[in-house]
Amino acid sequence: MTTTIQLSDETKTLIGTFGTKEDTYDDIVKRLYNLAVKEQLREFLLSSENTITLEEARKRLAKRWPK
Q1: Is 62 a member of any domain?
Q2: What is the pTM of this model?
Q3: Which of 27-66 are b and which e, b meaning 16 or more Cβ less than 10 Å from the residue's Cβ?
Q4: What is the structure's pLDDT at 64?
Q5: Within a domain: 9
Q6: For residues 23-50, average pLDDT
Q7: Number of domains in the chain
């Protein structure tokens, strides 16, 4: 099953620059999607949000489980 989506001529042209003559727009959009998923995963894995330094982790460890 296929669907039709509306794009501006500019967007269609931009998407087309990511492909070759053999690629369909479906191929290009799937490739762009896969790249976007990988980028989101990379950003998630490399994010420093909600992290602490090793030094802080060691301090917390020492407090919680003193020798």
Answers
A1: yes
A2: 0.66
A3: ebeeeeeeeeeeeeeeeeeeeeeeeeeeeeeeeeeeeeee
A4: 92
A5: no
A6: 94
A7: 1
